[in-house]
Design a protein that fits this description.
With about 180 residues, the protein is α+β, with helices and mostly antiparallel strands. It is built from 3 helices and 12 strands; from the N terminus they run ββββαββββαβαβββ. Strand 6 and strand 7 form a beta hairpin. It is globular, with a radius of gyration of 16 Å.
Amino acid sequence: MPRLFHFSEEPNIERFVPRSPLAHPDAEALVWAIDEAHSHFYLFPRECPRIGIWDLETGPQGMHLYAQEDWKEQIQATTLYRYEFDPMGFTDCQDHGVWTCDSIIEAIDRVAITDLEGALKEAGARLSYLSDLKAKAEELYNFERKEWKTALHVSMTRMRNLADWPHAKGKPTTPKS
């Protein structure tokens, strides 16, 4: 079984209660976790827009991450807490490391991460700050045709938090039926 984590800026979460994402209040209430191999995509402040790119054949090790330049100071100042879960009761969503659980969960461990850039480097990820993250997204994906422009895997999250983001928000990951 994989190691499963949840990252938060909240230092004292005692119980993880299933809930719908704030951006999708009609979605199923779940507790979300990410497996260790994909966890560096979450070594950011929660609301930070970011893009992760990796080769599906080699996996997420060596992931290249992009963040908007104006988030650099906040990334450097944020402390994250990595909560670890017992994987029993979680369902693999078959979506690049995402797992969910529909019941209340307690963490089995909590680790404070005070140097997010250092943790990314230690995980083998590369971080680049861009002046225009929206342009990078549009370089990778044709939003009009709804098709990728690359054979690499691309994950984008919190893009709606960019001041100039004109595209629809994505949908939350849920277990495949």
